[in-house]
Each structure stands twice: as C-alpha cells, then as structure tokens.
Amino acid sequence: MYTSQQNNKQSKQKIEKKTKMNVDELANFWKQFDMILCINLKEDTVRRQTSQAVFNKLQIPVEYLEVTRHPHGGQAGTFDSHQLCMRKAYNAGCENVVLFEDDVEDLRMPSVDALNEVSRFIKNNPNWELLSLGSNPLLYFHTTSAVAEYPHIRKLQTLYGHAYIASRRYMQTCLSYQYAHFLHPIDLLMSLNTQSFAIFPTWFYQPHTPNNVTQTIYRPNWFRKAVINSKNWYAYNVNIKLENVTWVLFALCIVLVILLILVLCKKK
Asked: Domain 4-267 is of which CATH architecture?
C-alpha cells in the first residue's frame, strides 16, 4: 500500500519529468505573492475539492474565501466576491494578490522561463495592474502588444477573472466600482483596463461546467480547451483584428460572386 508521502513523491517526480523543473521552483514562485485567494461558494464542496486538486498539483498555497449566495444572483455575487478579495488584500497592506475562482482548471504546466518572466515583470514594471494567468483574449476589435524583454507576456484586453494577479493600484480601482452603477460582470470591467497583461501560452482555463452565474452546460471541456488554446495562439502569433479579417473575407466573397457571374454570362 502506498503512503501519502510516497504519493506526493510520485506526484513531484511526474511534474519534474514533464516540465524539467524542480517542484521546489514551482512552490517558490508562488511564495513571492503577498496573498493568494480562491473564491468558493460555501455550499459548493465539490468545487472546493476539484480546485484544491489543481492547487496541490501546482504547489499553490491558496487561502479559500468562502461566500454565500447573493440575493440578486450570481453575477452580482461574483462582482461582490472579487471586491471582497481586493478589500481583504488591500486592508492587509498587500502590494499584489493572486485571485482564483473555484471552477479554475489547469491548462498546462508553466515553464521555468514563463515563471521567471512573470516574477521579473511584476517586480520591474511599476505600471501594471492586471496580469492574467488564464486569458481569453478579445480578438474582434483588439490586438495584443509585445512587451520588450518579456517574450511570453503581452499587453491586451481579455475576459474572465478565474485566474489573475492584481496590483495594489488595481485593488484601489476595483474597490471604487459599484455594481449598481454597472450591472455587468466584473470581468467585463476588467477587460477595459488599460494596464492589463497576460502570460502566453496561458496556464489556466474556465471549463464549461454548470456555474453559479448561468447554471448552464455549454460544450465539452475538450472543445473548451481547444477554443482557448486557439484564441491564445491567434492572439500571440497572428494578432490581426478579426474585424479586419471579416472585411477581407467579405471582399473575397464579393469578388468570387462577381467572377462566378462573369463565367456564367460567358457560357450563355
């Protein structure tokens, strides 16, 4: 029979073999942050267990912030929960905070280079406010911008607040919001932030499982992973507004229709 210690040793060996990094390096990466929080609906013990498995795998020393259902629904509840985390970190004097939602899943193991890059970035760039660890880039009207000396990091507009790092400046900004004035999801407001960045390729994603906002199953998780990976690849490697691509395709369609009409006319 395997002991818990043997299981942990096997898990560490598997991570080290896959990523060619020492697990202690991964654990040390998370130690640099002033606070690491995960929002968890108190009654949702399943989400608590599944997210804890993710955190154990990635050596993340997370503190759960348990919340109750909001009387005005999941969207308002999520808004208030993120503000509650920001208030907790801000009042504790934190310069940064890592925030997760309990439906977070790991998409890939961070590379050593990516870990080091994030560490250097938050230390050496005073103006950053958000750094997404699970980006879902807005591609239609926006592109990403390269950041000098940080090849894995891009400046961008991104949706989803399931995994990100926030600076003290963003904590202040977030606490100035009032849900009654916006009536929109908190991640929509995050997407408007002009000092928002993301790590590429992304580390985490939010699966399409029943959530506490919509209570809807959308698509299988393999499809969800494929979509997130594709959007991140496009944002990093192609980086052309889909609005422009749409107009090009529309113009090509018109040209093809005209050519088809000319061919048919010649046949007559």
From this structure: Alpha-Beta Complex (3.90)
pLDDT tens digit sequence for 51-93: 999 999 999 999 999 988 887 776 787 889 999 999 999 999 9
Give 59's DSSP letter.
T
**How many CB atoms neighbour CB 256 within 10 A?**
10
Tell me the HSE value of 26 on the side-chain side, using a 13 A CA sphere.
20
Contacts of residue 75, defined as CB under 8 A and 6 or more positions apart, other chains included, come to 184, 185, 213
What are the φ and ψ backbone dihedral angles of 220, each rounded to 5 degrees? -60, 150
Q: Is the pTM of this model over 0.90?
A: no
Residue 67 and residue 268: Cα distance in Å, rounded? 73
Scanning 176-213, the segments in alpha helix (DSSP H) are 179-182, 186-190
CA distance 234 to 242: 10
Question: 204: closest CA among 102, 157, 134?
Answer: 134
Q: Residue written as tokens 């997404």?
A: 132
pLDDT in tens, 2-41: 454 555 555 555 545 455 566 888 999 999 999 999 999 9
How many angstroms separate the first and last alpha carbons of the chain? 83
Per the structure block, which two tokens stand in for 127? 């103006």
Task: From 108, 118, 104, select the one nearest 53 (Cα to Cα).
Answer: 104
| Helix, strand, coil percentages for the chain (3-state, nearest 5) | 50, 15, 35
- Three-state DSSP at 44 gives coil
| Nearest-angstrom CA–CA distance, 99 and 205 | 13
Residue with tokens 């590379």: 111
Residue % of the chain over a pLDDT of 90: 48
Closest CA to 56 of 92, 104, 94: 104
